[in-house]
């Protein structure tokens, strides 16, 4: 698990290798990840959008931007937590993701960025 706190918002990430499969005549490596967002600040906040940079061992980079996470824009009051699961496909058994969440502080009405720390994606069979 990797964790990081930005402006009172704690992000924790765990990952798992889900298997391989063929898509468009090419092998893909499927990974899932679980992200927990904890509000340790004194203000209510809302996650409004996300930005991901997804890398694999073949030097491929995919950038993903979008609203919310898995179709939601969670509001977290002080002390609240939001957890969600998602996934990605890589062209190699190793890779990594990093990014950020764009959030709004309801007290100050200001937007701010919460860093998602770089987390590794690795297929256990490929280690050694």
From TrEMBL:
Q: Where does the chain cross the membrane?
A: none
Q: Which Gene3D superfamilies match?
A: ApaG domain
Provide one Gene Ontology biological process annotation: error-free translesion synthesis
Xref: Pfam families = DUF525 (PF04379)
Residue ranges of domain ApaG in the record: 3-128
> Per its record, how is this protein called by name?
Co2+/Mg2+ efflux protein ApaG
Q: What is the lineage of its organism?
A: Bacteria, Pseudomonadati, Bacteroidota, Flavobacteriia, Flavobacteriales
């Amino acid at each position: 698990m990797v964790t990081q706190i930005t402006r009172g918002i704690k992000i924790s990430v765990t990952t798992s290798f889900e298997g391989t499969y063929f898509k468009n005549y090419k092998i893909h490596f499927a990974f899932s990840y679980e992200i927990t967002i904890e509000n340790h600040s004194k203000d209510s906040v809302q996650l409004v959008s996300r930005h991901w940079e997804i890398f694999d061992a073949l030097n491929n980079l995919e950038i993903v931007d979008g609203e919310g996470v898995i179709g939601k824009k969670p509001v977290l009051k002080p002390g609240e937590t939001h957890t969600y699961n998602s996934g990605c496909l890589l062209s190699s058994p190793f890779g990594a993701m990093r990014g950020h969440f764009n959030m709004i502080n309801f007290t100050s009405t200001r937007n701010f960025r919460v860093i998602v720390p770089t987390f590794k994606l690795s297929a256990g069979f490929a280690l050694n």
